[in-house]
Amino acid sequence: MRKISLLIAVMIAAVYLQAQPLPQEVKMKQFIDDLMSKMTLEEKIGQLNLPGAGDFTTGQTANTDIGKKIVEGKVGGLFNISTAAKIRSVQQVAVEKSRLKIPLIFGMDVIHGYKSVFPIPLGLSCSWDMDLIEQSARIAAQEASADGICWTFSPMVDISRDPRWGRIAEGNGEDPYLGSEIAKAMVRGYQGKDLTANNTIMACVKHYALYGAPDAGRDYNTVDMSHQRMYNEYFPPYKGAVDAGVGSVMASFNEVDGIPATANKWLMTDVLRDQWGFGGFVVTDYTGINEMIDHGMGDLKTVSALALKAGIDMDMVGEGFLTTLENSLREGKISVQMIDNACRRILEAKYKLGLFDDPYRYCDLNRAASEVYTEANRNQARKTASESFVLLRNQNNLLPLKKNAKIALVGPLADNRLNMCGTWTVAGDFEKAISVKDGIAMVTGKPELITYAKGSNIVADSALEARIGMFGKATGWDSRPAEVVIAEAVKASQNADVIVAVMGEAAESSGESSSMSDIELPENQRDLLKALLRTGKPVVMVLFTGRPLAIKWEEENIPAILNVWFGGSEAGAAVADVLFGDVVPSGKLTTTFPQNTGQIPMHYNHKNTGRPLAEGQWFSKFRSNYLDVSNDPLYPFGFGLSYTNFNYSDINLSSNTMKPEGKIEVSVSVTNTGNYDGKEVVQLYIRDLVGSVTRPVKELKDFSKVFIKKGETKKVSFTIDIEDLKFYNYELKHVAEPGEFKVFVGGNSRDVKEASFVLTE
Ligand code: BGC
Description:
The protein is α/β, with parallel strands linked by helices. It has a six-stranded mixed β-sheet with strand order 11-16-15-14-12-13, with helices on both faces. The chain has a five-stranded mixed β-sheet with strand order 19-27-26-21-22.
């Protein structure tokens, strides 16, 4: 009887299963098997080729004869081309004129918003608000897809501890945990729940791996680090993106373990695919394969074969795959299987985007007019920008300002729409960006109370200014003597109640190929500040920057400093929202501000050494310190002031011991003791006191951004479990080791409450 009922159950299940639609994966495989069975070797190699369309370039090489190559099936995708109309016409060539009618994938560097430009990623990270960050990527995807784009080269998640490196602007700062959370939020925002929807786009996490750690902070330079450091401190954000289902990965320019990432099989296959389970495709960075000739890895044929063998699927710009793989195959240097694997992964990406169902899915000519740069999106960009600003100093509560104050608005970035958006703004319309001058007038409604004077150039040296301005965002060089320009600003300050000095870097002082050996504010801007201070009027410095600057002198002399990064198209309005108190600042640093350039690299989660300095000490002979500067940062990781104050209670732990399968609840009460409602980023750190390998003095493990009304107290709780205590040990096993742990909770990584517990066997 039992046997019969089992048989019936199996039969019912079989009928049921037959009636079910095939799982997506199976359908996709069948479709691609069928397509690939029709493809010639040349056509398969063609899919691996990604030329740049030339709307925008970041390298010296440019592609030619693209139309002809598309017809011949020698192009898999195109990047840096926009507008739905233009992309539609190119797609038409692919699906009407090429033999197999395979649609192209269209990529672009949509890094921090599209036409509604959001803050640069470093700024965005300082909001510590994952919903806001996800939303910024969602809006970017919506706008970009309305303009024909279905693939973005973002998120950039390279950990960096070196502000000399200009690309620190494009990442999320120095912390692996926060970086990983942000990577996930960005992927969710771009890709949404359904990648085939016409308003979601495929993300591409970059630059895999370690690109943020070049020697001496010089872009593209050599990277060399231990595997322990890679796994514990640099890999987590890339892995976070993979865990969130990112569709593609971009290889970095630098070498890893002496082999360029682009040819590094351990990195591209063993770690990425075998250990992390990545199933999407890998694209090189711009001419990444060709650059291996200069790295000293061989000629174009050799390096192209090395890249394919390592696990690279798509060749950006360089055409090494296109021009050499057939020969390498003939010579037995690579196999057909390798080409098939790469081709399959690219076709799969196109399938997942829904391009085989409708190649024009992202080419709706009507969407852009109603979905791009809308008022709602711009408002969201403005709100996001104001959440990214970090108040570094506010002596005697100089800020917020009164809306009826007479303002002397000075500085090279005060009336400068071109430089509001920061680096990597490939679609934004700079002329339409809101400058600080525009923003103050909008928010106060009293433009007549502003007296403006530029006061100085961004840098003192015109040749440097020209190098910075090579991407067309130069600020207009004022060739009059500096004293004359400063005198104008002093004059403009005469009748003012307060001076707002808008200083800092140009948009392109940071970003790709924009490394600096000295990260202090240029001397000419400091001269302007000194002259302004001499007027005796209170000075507020609004600081535009793509990197943490070494502003020790400013900290010691300027009463109020608001760091605003590059806030995007609505930056000026957001600055005014914060200056006049419509928004209470809540951003916290995700990157340490050093006191001077020589302290770099500097990060809060460093090791202790065998000769640490006692807390509060500056110098002690035969200890790890400098003669000329203390070991302290100027502003620590996690730091940021508010217009109100937050008071932390002692930490309450649910237990002083934790079993491996157990949990500990950590809670504090946070009271808003000031005069404004405000948001506080409550941060949880741990320290593993004894390890089989040395452990950092602090590691961020969780955070919570809470809104607390003035006078109110809120309890904030975190749960610690075994996963939070794990690290990669000497054998690169992910383990938690029994013993004592410290727990810290506070509003930044320095000023914290402390408790401890023991993890038992
Ligand atoms: C950059 C990448 C970018 C690519 C395409 C390269 O130079 O390193 O981040 O995605 O250009 O524009």
